[in-house]
Write a structure and sequence with these properties.
By secondary structure, the chain is of the alpha/beta class. The chain is about 45% helix and about 10% strand. The protein is built from 16 helices and twelve strands. Helix 1 runs antiparallel to helix 15 and helix 12 crosses helix 13. The protein is globular. The protein starts with a helix and ends with a strand.
């Protein structure tokens, strides 16, 4: 179906209305951080090793205390249900078919309750800390009721980054279907038919009990974004830790000092993330931040990473540098927009095939051992 991620992205651009494609594709201000997330992988070279028996190989390994088919998960992507009908369900099913966890965004169109009814694999839930603590408490309880494995507390959005593509196409100010948006949507009749086939205007599912927060997903997004707590501190992490009985992951850090604080406040894992470059522009890439954080907390918590992962070789490099797992974001969002569940499955298959191939070419047979063999399989060039 697709040869590489460029093919997937191009299909997504053809199928989605521009306003939603650029929501996936865009990043903050000059988008330099987003570019670094991708380009900094190029400084890390793989070393080919020959004449080793690599006839039997395994990509399986532990992630958050459970054995997975690969140390990989699908991370939270807001509004996935606007990229494809029942998009969150489609993505979760693809993840579960491949033995991977799926993380639902706070801004998901599908509710946690409905997602659990439609799927039976490992679910995680992303939580933003809100000024409305009652709503945050409701979401935590919904995650407990849905048998969610891990709460992914996202902490890098005290204010929202400004994405210039969203300003140009009007997404940033949307609260409903304007004439301009209606015209743009009409250019993608297939998308309109898929999304509106149930006859209902899409809404953020986890806000079903809060009709005052908006009549549709766009109004609701504005409402919930306005409630993200810019005054959040480590005391709020403690507040959540007291209420959440399972694995707690803190997502959105790139500095070792913050990683140490996460461990001190009871996190079971951290996600090295700059929100795909969508928050702070001109900051370091996540792959650049990885070695510092591994050195700081690698023996005391699980380290996950996202940002710029487009190939299996990217995943391989991160694992070799000490990450315990990788979250895919834009990569599977492109797949979902391009071909629904089949598109997400195709993206996972591409990652798996390349990861297996690169592991064999570097002379290893067990992915779980790659960090121990880092110097045998990697060479890092100096400079950017």
């Amino acid at each position: 179906m697709f040869a590489n991620m460029d093919d997937v992205r191009a299909r997504a651009a053809r199928r989605l209305p521009r306003v939603f494609f650029e929501y996936i594709d865009g990043a903050a201000f000059s988008e330099e951080t987003a570019r670094r997330n991708i380009s900094d992988f190029q400084r890390i070279e793989l070393r080919q090793r020959v004449l080793r028996d690599v006839s039997e190989r395994s990509l399986a390994g532990p992630l958050l205390g459970k054995e997975r088919s690969m140390p990989l998960a699908l991370g939270p992507v807001g509004f996935s249900g606007l990229f494809e009908a029942d998009g969150e369900i489609a993505a979760a099913r693809a993840a579960h078919t491949n033995g991977l966890p799926y993380c639902l965004s706070t801004f998901g169109i599908t509710s946690l309750r409905r997602l659990r009814e439609k799927t039976d694999g490992a679910l995680w839930f992303q939580l933003y800390v809100l000024t409305d603590r009652e709503l945050a408490t409701e979401m935590i309880q919904a995650a407990i009721d849905a048998d969610v494995e891990a709460l992914v507390l996202t902490v890098d959005t005290p204010v929202h980054g400004i994405r210039e593509k969203d300003i140009r196409n009007g997404f940033r100010s949307l609260t409903g279907v304007t004439p301009k948006l209606a015209f743009a949507l009409a250019q993608r009749p297939g998308w309109c038919a898929r999304i509106l086939r149930k006859g209902a205007v899409p809404r953020i599912g986890n806000l079903d009990s809060r009709p005052e927060m908006g009549r549709n997903a766009l109004e609701q997004a504005v409402s919930i974004a306005s409630k993200v707590d810019a005054s959040m501190t480590w005391e709020d992490v403690d507040w959540i830790r007291e209420r959440w009985p399972r694995k707690l992951i803190i997502k959105g850090l790139t500095e070792a000092e913050d990683a140490r604080s996460c461990v001190a406040h009871g996190a079971d894992g951290v996600v090295i993330s700059n929100h795909g470059g969508r928050q702070l522009d001109q900051s370091r890439s996540t792959i650049d931040a990885l070695p510092d954080i591994v050195e700081a907390v690698g023996d005391s918590t699980e380290i996950l990473i996202d940002g710029g992962f487009r190939r299996g070789s990217d995943v391989y490099k991160a694992l070799a540098l000490g990450a315990n797992g990788v979250l895919l974001g834009r990569a599977y969002a492109y797949g979902l927009a391009a071909a629904g569940e089949k598109g997400v499955d195709a993206v996972i298959a591409m990652i798996r095939t390349e990861l297996d191939t690169q592991m064999a070419q570097t002379g290893l047979t067990q992915l779980r051992e790659v960090a121990r063999h880092r110097d045998e399989v990697l060479r890092i060039r100096a400079g950017r």
